[in-house]
């Protein structure tokens, strides 16, 4: 049957998940090989994706429910990279936890395949299934730790997640009822033909969709789970949630709003919604991050603020009469930059907290003396999150704000710059603690090779793309060509 | 034949009851039941739309089947987590399960 080649990257990841489970059950002595099987599956997936780069015979498959295009290819790479970094960073933690190692890696891989399906889906049923395929493993992983905080994080994530799914489904039901189809471009066609007779109901459906995906993207006012889950979940899982599910949320929301709800009388409405949500998310996230004493919780609030920055780009897409692809490519650039930066920061935190057994920012004092490598890497990631050159975070922020200015959203840009200044206060506060304070304990912290390698790759990515951003920008621009019509 | 509006109103009422339950109940199991009510309201919507508006009459029904399946998976998982918390804390009340501040 044709179409199977279009899901090759997902199949490679799922086969690896099955292999991991089998090896765990049949060859218990070979357990230390499990993460490397997972990495091999991800490498196969990336290689499959790489064979599509530069091709232009893109098409849809499975009755038009999945599409293979540059946009999906871009996100396949992002998700394979994110998952590989998370697997590398998990090795020590999973070894120490001891139990159910195969299940852990299998769940991470299944969640990754769900994220990949999500970025390629162009049908409401497929989008819903892909969303759940990525969410349910993440609920389990959030509750993976033995301590009570982790179970609590799992329960909160699951309950709030299923409420978000219900809202999302109600929006999808309205959209289906109004148009009689679930394929995104067909929805756009019916809406175009109908004109704005059903505009009120369409806006209701849009708001419900934003609520459902807003939960995944962690934007205000759907952010209440973020700090608790980020703090309670095991740190490798937090790294996965903070980058993977956020990127997928933006991937799918841009596809839905472009391909199904792109009619001009609708985009007038949704760009205003996104602009307001962006402003609120940036401000609230940053203000709340200042007062946090737990570094995972602080990064949780900061990720809400960063989601606000993403949304500035999404809002800039929709302003009529402007270059459509500018905002979209800025968002994709931001996704890639954020993946490198946040993963680097979280993996450094994993390495440090394994040794000092604490996530309190005050325990990071004098980290420079205890581990120059980790302190420098974490500081570099925090500088990139602030948006200071020479990091990829700087270019990402600049492109987002550039797109917003071109779209006449100057007020949003001014607010964004003010927020960047606020965020510098708490990001650089951690850097100050690490470099300028005296350590209470001089004992050096050693990193294991997998963690060292993943941090080195992340920081190298931040630096290289910070100095030579063009390849990444070009990739992002190519990826959004599908929206150019 | 019953008009479509009746189904939609019933579904809206069910959904609102679910939202009300989610916001007011403090027991995790009851919150879960309220979420189920919301999901069932959505399924009703899909089936009603399918039989009244969709010429193929099938997409909405397929969607409803998927909603039911996924909801079952979510409930299974949620109950497992609740049992685990209950063993730790002997409570399924979400207000008492608050080591982490909201």
Structural write-up:
The complex is a heterodimer of chains A (485) and B (102). Chain A is an all-alpha fold and 485 residues long. Chain A has a domain at 264-485. Helix content of chain A is 76%, strand content 1%. Chain A is built from 19 helices and two strands. Chain A has helices spanning 8-26, 34-50, 70-97, 101-120, 124-142, 148-179, 184-194, 199-217, 226-232, 235-259, 264-290, 295-318, 324-356, 367-370, 372-386, 392-406, 410-436, 449-467, 470-479, and strands at residues 59-61, 66-68. Chain A has a two-stranded antiparallel sheet with strand order 1-2. In chain A, helix 2 (34-50) packs antiparallel against helix 3, helix 10 (235-259) packs antiparallel against helix 13 and helix 16 (392-406) crosses helix 18 (449-467). The radius of gyration of chain A is 21 Å and the shape is globular. In chain B, helix 1 (4-24) packs antiparallel against helix 2. Chain B has one domain (4-89): Helix Hairpins, CATH 1.10.287. Chain B is 75% helix and 0% strand. Chain B is mainly α and 102 residues long. Chain A binds chain B through residues 124-125, 128-129, 132, 136, 139-140, 143, 148-149, 151-156, 158-159, 162-163, 165-167, 169-170, 172-174, 176-177, 180-182, 224, 227-228, 231-232, and chain B through 15, 18, 22, 28, 31-32, 35, 38-39, 41-42, 45-46, 49, 53-55, 59-60, 62-63, 66-67, 70-71, 73-74, 77-78, 81-82, 84-85, 88-89, 94, 97-102.
What topology does this entry show?
The complex is a heterodimer of chains A (485) and B (102).
Chain A: H1 8-26, H2 34-50, E1 59-61, E2 66-68, H3 70-97, H4 101-120, H5 124-142, H6 148-179, H7 184-194, H8 199-217, H9 226-232, H10 235-259, H11 264-290, H12 295-318, H13 324-356, H14 367-370, H15 372-386, H16 392-406, H17 410-436, H18 449-467, H19 470-479
Helix pairs in contact in A: 1-2, 1-4, 2-3, 2-4, 3-4, 3-10, 3-13, 3-18, 3-19, 4-5, 4-10, 5-6, 5-10, 6-7, 6-8, 6-9, 8-10, 8-11, 9-10, 9-12, 10-12, 10-13, 11-12, 11-17, 12-13, 12-16, 12-17, 13-15, 13-16, 13-18, 13-19, 15-17, 15-18, 16-18
Chain B: H1 4-24, H2 28-52, H3 59-89
Helix pairs in contact in B: 1-2, 2-3
């Amino acid at each position: 049957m044709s179409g199977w080649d279009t899901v090759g990257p997902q199949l490679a990841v799922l086969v690896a998940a099955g292999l991991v489970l089998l090896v765990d059950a049949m060859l218990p002595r070979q357990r230390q090989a499990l993460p490397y099987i997972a990495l091999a599956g991800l490498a196969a997936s990336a290689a499959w994706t790489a064979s599509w780069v530069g091709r232009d015979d893109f098409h849809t498959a499975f009755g038009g429910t999945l599409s293979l295009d540059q946009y999906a290819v871009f996100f396949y790479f992002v998700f394979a990279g994110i998952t590989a970094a998370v697997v590398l960073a998990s090795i020590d933690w999973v070894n120490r936890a001891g139990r159910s190692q195969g299940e852990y890696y299998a769940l991470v891989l299944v969640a990754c395949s769900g994220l990949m399906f999500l970025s390629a889906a162009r049908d409401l049923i497929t989008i819903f299934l892909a969303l759940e395929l990525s969410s349910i493993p993440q609920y389990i992983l959030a509750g993976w730790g033995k301590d009570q905080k982790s179970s609590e994080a799992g329960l909160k994530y699951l309950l709030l997640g299923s409420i978000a799914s219900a809202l999302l489904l109600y929006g999808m039901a309205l959209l289906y009822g109004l148009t009689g189809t679930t394929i995104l471009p067909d929805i756009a066609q019916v809406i175009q033909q109908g004109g704005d007779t059903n505009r009120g109901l369409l806006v209701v459906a849009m708001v419900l969709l934003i609520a459902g995906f807003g939960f995944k993207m962690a934007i205000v006012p759907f952010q209440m789970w973020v700090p608790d889950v980020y703090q309670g979940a095991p740190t490798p899982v937090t790294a996965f949630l903070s980058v993977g599910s956020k990127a997928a949320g933006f991937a799918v929301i841009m596809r839905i709003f472009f391909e199904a709800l792109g009619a001009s009388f609708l985009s007038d409405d949704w760009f205003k919604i996104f602009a307001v949500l962006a402003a609120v998310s940036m401000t609230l996230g940053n203000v709340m991050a200042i007062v946090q004493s737990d570094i995972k919780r602080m990064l949780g609030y900061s990720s809400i603020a960063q989601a606000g920055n993403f949304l500035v780009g999404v809002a800039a897409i929709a302003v009529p009469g402007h270059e459509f692809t500018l905002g979209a490519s800025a968002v994709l650039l931001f996704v890639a930059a954020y993946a490198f930066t946040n993963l680097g920061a979280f993996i450094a935190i994993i390495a440090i907290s394994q040794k000092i057994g604490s996530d309190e920012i005050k325990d990071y004092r004098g980290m420079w003396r205890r581990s120059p490598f980790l302190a420098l890497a974490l500081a570099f990631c925090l500088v990139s999150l602030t948006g200071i050159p020479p990091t990829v975070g700087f270019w990402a922020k600049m492109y987002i704000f550039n797109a917003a200015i071109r779209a006449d959203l100057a007020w949003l840009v001014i607010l964004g710059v003010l927020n960047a200044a606020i965020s510098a206060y708490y990001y650089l506060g951690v850097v100050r603690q690490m470099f300028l304070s005296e350590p209470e304990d001089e004992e050096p912290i050693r990193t294991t090779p997998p963690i060292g390698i993943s941090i080195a790759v992340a920081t190298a990515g931040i630096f290289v793309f910070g100095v030579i951003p063009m390849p990444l920008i070009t990739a992002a621009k190519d990826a959004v060509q599908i929206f150019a019509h | 034949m019953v008009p479509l509006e009746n189904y939609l109103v019933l579904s809206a009422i069910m959904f609102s009851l679910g939202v009300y339950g989610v916001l007011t109940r403090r027991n995790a199991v009851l919150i879960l039941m309220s979420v189920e009510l919301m999901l069932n309201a959505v399924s009703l919507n899909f089936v009603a739309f399918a039989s009244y508006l969709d010429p193929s009459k099938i997409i909405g029904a397929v969607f409803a089947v998927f909603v039911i399946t996924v909801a079952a998976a979510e409930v299974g998982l949620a109950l497992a987590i609740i049992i685990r918390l209950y063993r730790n804390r002997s409570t399924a009340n979400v207000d008492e399960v608050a080591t982490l501040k909201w």
